[in-house]
Design goal:
The protein is an all-alpha fold and 79 residues long. Helices cover 80% and strands 0% of the residues. The longest helix is centred in the first third of the chain and has 33 residues, at 3-35.
Amino acid sequence: MSILAAIRREEKKVKKQMAKLQRDLHGLQSAAKALGKSASRELTSTKKRVLSAAGRAKISKAVKKRWAKIKAEARKAVA
């Protein structure tokens, strides 16, 4: 087998892969164009949700009440 023949076969294979990639790229570009501005828009991170001190206190109080109830029921079950 000659080296030149192997190089030519490899060249054909690479050209075939390039053609497939060009078709795929064209398809993606067409889809992005069809979607318009929504495709070109970058993803933005969501804003961090902030909870007020009063809100945190309210949640804390509710959790403590819930656990107190569970512990009370557990004491009744044991006794």
